Structure formats: structure tokens, C-alpha cells
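Slide 14.
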Amino acid sequence: MNTILKHGIRFILLVLLQIFIFNKINLFEFVNPQVYIIFIILLPFNLSHARVMLLSFLLGLSLDFFDDTGGMHAAACVFAAYIRPFLLRFAFGISYELNTLKFNQTPVTQRLSYIGLVILTHHFVLYLLEYFNLERMLDILEKTIYSSVLTFLFIILITLIFKSKKT
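Slide 15: predicted structure.
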């Protein structure tokens, strides 16, 4: 399947799943999984930084449009995309630097740390913008941590279900 078509379908499917399924999950009245960010996590590592940021902006903007959240998702996605190269370098080291990184062939601990860092970063910015009050930092951190754990579990489950046969 064409790479552009594959990522386009993934984009649309994740936005729809987030809107119609994952946004309805409201555990303990404040924990929401933001599973759509798996799109940013799984973008090709050799894709230009500008394209990753543009696609991330469009992803966040799509969620903002449907959730009426005034740019919070777009800002969080763009920030996650902006620091993505640093997180890749941190999690995968020399493999990322030499452009020899194959996600499914890396050690599980490296994959999990990369996924977790992207989720935490995205969620922290999202909830910081939602509360927009540093006096509520404990609430921001609490919502970030709990939502990140739930998002992480859903993303791991999704990656296991749809694991590529090509390794």
C-alpha cells in the first residue's frame, strides 16, 4: 500500500476513533485517553521535521475542530512533534543518529520509553493549556499522569493488535 495512502487512512481513522470512542471514555470524571497521538509516534523517522510538524498540526486542528477546544490539541501536537527528534535521540541513541532505526526491531524498552515520553509531553502541554493556571499545577500533573497511563495502555494494546507482519 502506498505510504501516503496508509498514513492518510491512519490519520482519518484515528481522528474518528478519538472523537466517537475515546472521547467518550471519562474514567473517574477526569481521565481521558488521547490515543490519536499514536499517529505522531508512528510517523516515519526519516520524514522531514517540517512535515512531521505540519501533519501534527493538522491532526491537532482536526481534534480541536470537533472538540471545540480552541487550539489546545494543535498546540500539544505541534510541541510533541517539535521535540520528537530529541525524544527519538534519547530513546534510540545512535540508531536514530545514523538513520538505521527500524521501530519493530528495536528493544522493547526503547520503544516503550519513546512512546511514554511522547505521551507525557503531549498530555502535559494539553492539560497545562486546558487549566491555564499554574496554581493548579497539582491538578495538571495528576490529570497528565493518569491520562498518560491510560493512553499508554491503549496505544500498546493497539500496536499489539495491529502489529505489522514485516519486522
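Speaker note: The chain has a mean pLDDT of 89.
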